[in-house]
Amino acid sequence: MLCLSSNQAQQILDSLRGNNEAVIFLDLGLTSDSIELQRNSAVFPDGQKLKIEQIMTIAEDPGIAYSINNNQIERLMWFDDQTNKFYKLRGTETWPALEISGILMHRIKATDPKSDAEHKVAMISPVSGRVLDTCFGLGYTATFAAGRASEVTTIECDPNVVALASRNPYSRQCFENPRIRLIEGDVTEIIQRFENGCFDRIIHDPPTLAVAGDLYGDKFYTELFRVLRAGGVMFHYTGQPGSRHRNVDLPTRVSQRLSAIGFTKVSKRPSALGVIAKKPQK
Question: 88 lies in a domain?
């Protein structure tokens, strides 16, 4: 299954003028390949064919990723009646972002989803051993962590998010890399199954406090402390909600809570909008 965004669709439209073949970036810019250009259509490497009207539809719809399946296009967005939420794979200049009911789950201002994920993984450097990625999202942090870790366990509570990731070319490794173990379910329940000290590094990148308050609570922080090995390092993404208008300093509040739980060397990392904490050696 191929994916296109408006940028790639516009490249195809520009190439249709007088050409029989063109090299186009496919799968949201992940790969490049030759496509056959016909008078009113384009034939892709896998044999699928789109009419010019379909390509124009994608080109005129910026910010949305489209899948191509059986010569048909489908917007990668939908509403789920059970969760009462709207899910969208939002195209960016690099890797796409996840948007849920209008709320972006990835940073796109002054950075991009790819660079942000790389930065978060760098916060737990040197990455080694077993890594816990508490909130899967589109699996970008899990993907980068798996490049160095022996195993990455990542958890996602929403099947819709997993479904979007399964159609996102940049999430492909999460379903193919044997070093990545994706568990679907509530992380507050699943974490209780893990043994004491079984993870060398933790990346805790939860949704906002307003959406997932239990992931900022002492009970969950105690579980994070328990499953982290002595001497292990955790990065906790907090963002800066309310810092400008409500004078709320969430990174400081989180730092204080983590210290009270038992973490040491707790320090804020403004560049990554989060907090680093270490479990003391025995």
Answer: no
Q: Can you give the pTM of this predicted structure?
A: 0.91
Cis-peptide, bond into residue 126, ω within 30° of zero? yes
d(CA 11, CA 169): 19
Amino acid at 60: E
Tell whether 116 and 67 lie within a shared domain. no
**Domain span at 123:** 108-278
Task: Rank 11-25, 93-107, 191-205, 227-241 by mean pLDDT and report only the highest.
Answer: 191-205
Confidence of residue 215 (pLDDT cuts 50, 70, 90): very high
Is 89 inside any structural domain? no
Location of structure tokens 């805790």:
204
Is the domain of 50 the same as that of 123?
no
